[in-house]
């Protein structure tokens, strides 16, 4: 089946509204038939003279030359971005199919059933669980052709291909792992029931690919639409980066990305297409499952998504392979000497194709083939059942194999395979091609029996209506075939590695002594970071593993010196002499360059960071990425990609530069960050810090490196740095623990004072806190103890951990104070916290204040922050405006004494 119209009358109206050219334009001129015939005859002669392969090459060269000549003559014409709506790989070009079609058909039917049964059983038990059947029903043959013939696993000699799976199709991947023996019936019975399963000692199955939840199974989180495509491209690019720098052998490995046609509307889905083409990433293959339908209806009801995607990808420089029609169409197309079928395809919109896919052969004959006598004659010898069995290309393993083989062999360009399928294929009247197919979670007894019969499954009525799982005997032909195919390709996929060889970390003194013993030297924490990074890059073992990443702001952050030191990665080297060639800070690009300078694309830079931060798992090579960016354009702009990195168990550093709402005085609202630390606090495996001084920053980086590279903890670090030069004190060794845990006593007030106040400062506002302490002591006679709070998030998490331990402890066991309460337990006077972020950040620790015998806070706690929108003005004016300057801190103390 294919998919045309609802009625001849509605079709005519559509053609008038959509396909007819505007009436005010002149009619397009037509070529003279006789002259056209002469040109075509000459062209065919060229093909015949040079033979099949060379003739096509010569013909292409001639067309290029003619086009160049036409442009010299100012002929305003360019080739269409679309090719005929048929398969790119012709029957003559198809390689022999290497598999057993009948066995693969039986296996595919079993997998479809088990995927369906998994969702049906879950929703029979708990109707709120949801799940997806229709997406895998459309993608099953695409996946299975890959599993049986293309997806290489790690066989000990060559590392595995990387496969990004369409997330709504995850039940099908679980169903295959069940047949492979990697998952059991208990696992499948607990699809989307992870907590209940865990209480019974069973691994439940998460909704979508989530490496955090199934760390030895899934590799890439793709559940948020659009993240998979951009991450797949940057993974392919990072593989080249590793190879060019001599850190890993990635030859022969492919990145396969399976995505939906509706998903391509996401900006991230298409954001990096030109990068892949520009860098010639022929190790990257996209497979777009063009089932023509998104969640609510057709992707392009009044147009054709295949044509649109072909133009998009070919225009971006990709090789495009279309897999639209199954083998059953070959004979019809061969007999179609007048090309009426191709013309009808070209005039059929996706909304019509969807209607046909939801109906039977008789409907297709009436509403598609009976549009003209010529078309009707083509299928006159076919029964309605025969027409019903005319498959789309994405459901024919032979056609899919031909497309995949062509993609895998193509060199010099990334390739996209546009595979046409039916959403809900095989689900019958309840799901196939229906507007509601995406929401179909429950099937009745008749529906289950119909699905069984449609795919000739060996299930009794009782087994079918109870959605029993089906697994052939171990010695059956199906099971022998399934295991033999995966053995030939190196093993099972998906599979994830959780460890990599450790990397030695240089001593803190060797790379950051300048920061630890600053002795009042003025510098910004940004300057300190760049200096420490430069020292780390010089380390013989760790240095090559560091991946500095910027989004076109290296000079802004003072990193230009690294251009000469380690170079900027460029796969083709530097093909020009830079304008600043004679400068010490010249812009140096080279194939073995270490810096990833991603241009103005935070989404691209964070995708590169994710690839590097997960290299320990995907490549068995631990890398240490540092992505430095405007803090306002980090968590705010690419927060979803950061969450995906967290799901993927990334290890690396995110450096939020020019942090705080009052540091970028003249930039104004969109550049001033007052919320990134609060946002970072919501990501469970992200450790966020806001250091005020170079020594604190150095200790945090050193701690993080040991945690990620040596202890191999699945966590990453977000650290803010500022652009304001301040006097940096030396950091004593006994303060290091407090820096890491979230706070330490920076400066004690005068002991002899009877009045005291506890001032909490961090990041950009620490200078105001220190100034307030001096004013309070000199003008008000108040002893001010100044605490440096490096992380409210870590303090809050520690406090919550103590509460959790107390809740689960035996009755009568007292609540132990967290680090925050421990540090302040002997303090006196009100506690005033000031920061350059919204007040909600210091409010995170209010619940963990030192308590009296009744469990009530024994000191008042006041928070000052930069809530609201930013402004353009000087730092002093901004801090006065937001009431986070020294005067506001002093005023808060004075008012506290009047209560």
Largest sheet: 6 strands, parallel
Span from first to last CA?
80 Å
CA-atom Rg in angstroms: 32 Å
Q: Say how many strands there are.
A: 20
Query: Within the largest sheet, what's the order of strands?
Result: 10-7-11-12-14-13
**Which percent range fits the helix content?**
40-55%
Alpha-beta content class: alpha/beta
Contiguous runs where pLDDT drops below 50 for at least 5 residues: 3-22
Question: How many DSSP H or I helices?
Answer: 36
Strand proportion, as a percent range, falls in 5-15%
- Mean pLDDT, nearest integer? 91
Overview of this protein structure:
- It is built from 36 helices and 20 strands.
- Strand 13 (686-689), helix 30 and strand 14 form a beta-alpha-beta unit.
- The termini are far apart.
- The model is unreliable at 3-22 (pLDDT under 50).
- The strands form five sheets. The protein has a six-stranded parallel sheet with strand order 10-7-11-12-14-13, with helices on both faces. A five-stranded parallel sheet has the order 1-2-3-5-4, sandwiched between helices.
- The longest helix has 25 residues, at 101-125.
- It is an alpha/beta fold and 899 residues long.
Q: What topology does this entry show?
A:
Layout: H1 8-19, H2 33-50, H3 52-72, H4 101-125, H5 134-149, E1 162-164, H6 170-180, H7 185-188, H8 194-199, H9 227-244, E2 255-260, H10 267-270, H11 273-278, E3 284-290, H12 305-316, E4 319-323, H13 330-335, H14 340-346, H15 350-357, H16 361-367, H17 373-378, H18 384-388, H19 397-409, E5 415-420, H20 445-454, H21 461-465, H22 477-488, H23 508-516, E6 521-523, H24 525-537, E7 546-550, H25 561-566, E8 568-569, E9 589-590, E10 596-597, H26 602-613, H27 615-618, E11 624-630, H28 635-647, E12 653-657, H29 676-680, E13 686-689, H30 694-710, E14 716-720, E15 726-728, H31 736-741, E16 743-747, E17 756-761, H32 766-780, E18 783-789, H33 792-807, H34 819-824, E19 831-834, E20 861-864, H35 875-881, H36 886-896
Parallel strand pairs: 1-2, 2-3, 3-5, 4-5, 7-10, 7-11, 8-9, 11-12, 12-14, 13-14, 17-18, 17-19, 19-20
Antiparallel strand pairs: 6-15, 16-18
